[in-house]
Design brief:
The protein is an alpha+beta fold. It has ten helices and 18 strands. It binds FE2/S2 (inorganic) cluster and fe (ii) ion (FE2). FE2/S2 (inorganic) cluster (FES) binds next to loops.
């Protein structure tokens, strides 16, 4: 079998919308360029411009131990995860006084409790008697936390309220502060962050001006969590995360998106503190597959057209007219739950993915946000926890299919529980993420091979280099 036939077979394995170009048909590659810039018609008001490219070199990433060494896993906890600000939820997840949520990060567990107004308090979820974990529930409301082991009681503020059989403790044994120790927390426009680092600078400095400016248009304060899934993946957290900060794999791993997501022309911008932005061009096909693309619309086009409020008779006949039709329809909407005029045209259709170091990826659309994290496992460097939360603006219609939201309750009357799915449950991941879930462990397996000397990266994968640039600064002690 020739090389071309092998490629064709791989690309055709589960196409369900389109017949794609023959693999041996010529592709008009443009010469190498370092970055791609969005077309001007997607930003006529000049709200966002491409940030200068950064040359992060061409070295091969040869230190494979970062993906499987226990020593490195422990150093990462001490030098990175314990130092940075971590996004853990939203004020609307704990909507009233005494509502709480439990947040687990590796071996640590934290309770975040809502106070009066927008105030919150985060505390270690550990009884001060003999160290039992106080709470196992993810979300709830309580005036006090009662330890299940010997029934010591703590207020929702963390104050020790009651010691069972107090008279059997000698005074000296209790002459310590036995309240629940506080964890630093901060809220930015509804989002709750914590840090285990008492010396960390302010949250807004950590997020940086690019993040703050870019996220301005989104309705962060008003969103509701409508999907929340966690799953253990048999791969290191970095391997898993890497697959979500490059669009290079879309053409191979997600064939059903080839007609509607032009990841080849994704714009990647690198910010300070390891944060970044990837803009994936939605509603446009990958250039490699334009030849022979049928005129009719893909399901993804139809979702976006419906969301924009266009009825079927108003839909364009050809896919190339879809982006402009959606932008026009959204901007024409009056008295809608969203003011689309606050966004650049590109934000109305494209996927704006804001990444917060180390692994928070917020895929932002005006209507809803798909927020993923790949969290370190407490004791196994070759596993991680994949988490996805979808937050949506109440009153919107459909969300892009990759968000895998069905029958969402947007009433705000009930706090959605977290849904833990079995490690081999692909169905509950939705059609796109399941493909990543299948691929990522193959990388974890392959990197152990003596026959693999380390990753090489295209400039489509520049954010992986950027991640490791920041990672090395923390791991070497330059930062943190
Ligand atoms: S460990 Fe909590 S009351 Fe004993
Ligand atoms: Fe993917």
């Amino acid at each position: 079998m020739s090389k071309d036939e092998t490629v064709t077979e791989q690309y055709d394995r589960d196409d369900n919308h389109f017949q794609f170009a023959e693999a041996n048909a010529p592709i008009d590659y443009e010469p190498y360029r370092q970055s791609y810039k969005l077309p001007e018609w997607k930003d006529t008001k000049g709200r966002y411009s491409k940030r200068p490219s950064r040359d992060l070199g061409t070295d091969r990433n040869t230190d494979k131990s970062v993906y499987h060494s226990r020593d490195i896993m422990e150093q990462e906890w001490e030098r990175i995860w314990s130092k940075v600000w971590l996004l853990v939820g939203h004020l609307n997840d704990i909507p009233k006084p005494n509502a709480f949520m439990k947040v687990d990060r590796a071996h640590e567990s934290v309770l975040v409790v809502r106070g009066e107004g927008d105030s919150i308090r985060a505390m270690y979820n550990v009884c001060q008697h003999r160290g039992a974990r106080l709470v196992e529930q993810d979300f709830g409301t309580t005036k006090k936390f009662v330890c299940p082991f010997h029934m010591w009681e703590f207020s929702s503020n963390g104050e020790l309220l009651k010691i069972t059989d107090r008279e059997t403790f000698r005074e000296e044994a209790l002459c310590h502060n036995l309240d629940l120790p506080e964890v630093r927390s901060a809220v930015y426009r509804g989002w709750i962050f914590i840090t285990f680092n008492d010396d960390a600078g302010p949250l807004e400095d950590y997020l940086g001006s690019e993040f703050l400016k870019l996220s301005e248009a989104y309705s962060f304060e008003n969103v509701l969590r409508i999907r929340d899934v966690q799953q253990e993946w048999p791969a290191n957290w970095k391997i898993s995360h890497e697959a979500f900060i490059e669009g290079y794999h879309v053409q191979a791993t997600h064939p059903q998106l080839r007609g509607a997501v032009d990841a080849y022309h994704a714009q990647h911008d690198l910010f300070d503190n390891g944060h970044g932005l990837s803009i994936y061009q939605f509603m446009s096909p990958l250039p490699q597959f334009i030849r022979n693309l049928p005129d009719e619309l893909a399901e993804e086009h139809k979702i976006f057209l419906r969301e924009a409020g266009l009825t079927e008779d108003e839909w364009p006949k050809h896919w190339s007219e879809v982006p402009a039709a959606i932008i026009k329809a959204k901007l024409a909407k009056k008295d809608y739950v969203l003011d689309y005029s606050r966004f650049s045209e590109g934000q109305l259709i494209d996927d704006w993915n804001l990444g917060i170091f180390p692994t928070t990826e917020m895929f932002l659309h005006p209507e809803g946000y798909f927020i993923q994290n790949w969290l370190p496992h407490p004791n196994d460097p070759e596993k991680c926890y994949y988490t996805v939360q979808v937050y949506a603006v109440p009153g919107i219609g459909e969300l892009p299919s990759f968000m895998a939201v069905e029958n969402a309750d947007m009433s705000g009357k009930r706090v959605l529980p977290r849904h833990y799915i079995d490690t081999n449950d692909y169905e509950n991941l939705g059609p796109v993420i399941r493909q990543d879930r299948e691929l990522v462990p193959r990388v974890q397996k392959g990197l152990h091979s003596k026959g693999f000397k380390g990753s090489v990266y295209s400039e489509q994968e520049i954010r992986i280099r950027h991640f490791f640039d920041e990672y090395s600064q923390y791991m070497s002690g330059q930062k943190g």
